[in-house]
């Protein structure tokens, strides 16, 4: 457990229990895959944001626990579908569900997690929360499709890239904070600030994730370095390298994206470094973290908002 989890450690344990309870199904394979995914752990930053936001705003009920579980179910469903689309074989240091059980069960259990999340939302009974999260799941799907369209296209622009990571990653961070604000009956300016905070943290998280794919350690990452290149994903390090590199460097990177070719990964790593693409990507992430922290001025100063500032910094400093 990371230090910023400690201030909501009891809540976190209760959320884990809620997750286990809500994975119940009469179909054994649903439970098997569900438990396999949840037991893989992960940083659980999205449900953590629900818990921290609610505590920062002095929420006194119990629905925050179910709301955190809902966010984790939505996130896990997206991972299941994402791994099928990307034909990924490793996540969080373990074999993916689709590699172990097949694509069809992975997709269908992802559907189960989505539908269970919405059942839990109905039980909470807030149309505002349902409106935010239904819009969110729709936008995530759009982002995944947009990323699929962008695959193996070296002409993807920086603007297009940012649009994808906003929909694919940042929106769930933003919505986790916003629905926690709704549940806590936050003032409109606080709700807006919290959504912006989550958005900026999510953007920073994805920017660093894309940078790590070209400089991370496979064991620490829990996936293979160069996976994005193998899938032909034109992420910011490659986009910037093509913008600023020599014609030969641009041609090499573009060819690797078109072919999803990792055989020239060492040369591409050098190009990313030489063109300053890595530093540029991390600088954009640093700007997102600074914007996230600035939003916290709208909230009370307490242990929970301090932890939220630490979460923003972690998004930048993490190595996996």
TrEMBL record:
- The UniProt record lists the EC number as 2.5.1.90
InterPro entries membership: Isoprenoid_synthase_dom_sf, Polyprenyl_synt, Polyprenyl_synt_CS
Q: Which UniProt keywords apply?
A: Magnesium, Metal-binding, Transferase
Name the chemical reaction catalysed here.
Answer: 5 isopentenyl diphosphate + (2E,6E)-farnesyl diphosphate = all-trans-octaprenyl diphosphate + 5 diphosphate
Q: What is this protein called?
A: Octaprenyl diphosphate synthase
What does the entry give for GO biological process? isoprenoid biosynthetic process
Q: Which cofactor does it need?
A: Mg(2+)
Family, as annotated? Belongs to the FPP/GGPP synthase family.
Protein's organism: Marinimicrobium koreense
- For the keyword Phosphoprotein, the answer is no
EC class of the enzyme, as a word: transferase
PROSITE patterns given in the database record:
POLYPRENYL_SYNTHASE_1 (PS00723)
Describe its function: Supplies octaprenyl diphosphate, the precursor for the side chain of the isoprenoid quinones ubiquinone and menaquinone.
Any single Pfam family the record assigns to this protein: polyprenyl_synt
Superkingdom: Bacteria
Note the coiled coil stretches, chain numbering.
none
Q: Which GO terms describe its molecular function?
A: all-trans-octaprenyl-diphosphate synthase activity; metal ion binding
Mind telling me which SUPFAM superfamilies this protein's record contains?
Answer: Terpenoid synthases (SSF48576)
């Amino acid at each position: 457990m990371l230090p910023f989890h400690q201030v909501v450690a009891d809540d976190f344990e209760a959320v884990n229990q809620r997750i286990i309870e809500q994975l119940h199904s009469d179909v054994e394979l649903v439970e098997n895959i569900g438990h396999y995914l949840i037991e893989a752990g992960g940083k659980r930053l999205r449900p953590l944001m629900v818990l921290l936001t609610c505590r920062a705003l002095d929420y006194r009920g119990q629905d925050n626990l179910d709301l955190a579980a809902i966010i984790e179910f939505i996130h896990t469903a997206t991972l299941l579908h994402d791994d099928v689309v990307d034909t990924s074989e490793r996540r969080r240091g373990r074999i993916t569900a689709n590699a172990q059980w097949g694509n069809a069960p992975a997709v269908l259990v992802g559907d189960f997690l989505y539908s269970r999340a919405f059942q839990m939302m109905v039980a909470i009974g807030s149309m505002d929360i349902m409106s935010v999260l239904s819009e969110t799941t729709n936008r995530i799907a759009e982002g995944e499709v947009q990323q699929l369209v962008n695959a193996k296209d070296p002409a993807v622009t920086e603007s297009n890239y940012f649009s994808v990571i906003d929909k694919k990653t940042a929106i769930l961070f933003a919505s986790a904070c916003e629905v926690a604000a709704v549940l806590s009956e936050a003032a409109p300016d606080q709700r807006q600030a919290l959504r912006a905070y989550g958005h900026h943290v999510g953007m920073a998280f994805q920017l660093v994730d894309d940078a790590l794919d070209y400089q991370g350690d496979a064991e620490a990452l829990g996936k293979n370095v160069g996976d994005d290149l193998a899938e032909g994903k034109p992420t910011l390090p490659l986009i910037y390298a093509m913008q600023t590199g020599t014609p030969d460097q641009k041609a090499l990177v573009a060819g690797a994206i078109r072919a999803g070719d990792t055989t020239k990964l060492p040369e591409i790593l050098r190009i990313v470094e030489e063109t300053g693409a890595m530093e540029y990507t991390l600088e954009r992430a640093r700007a997102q973290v600074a914007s996230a922290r600035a939003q916290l001025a709208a909230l009370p100063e307490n242990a929970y908002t301090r932890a939220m500032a630490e979460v923003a910094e972690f998004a930048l400093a993490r190595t996996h």
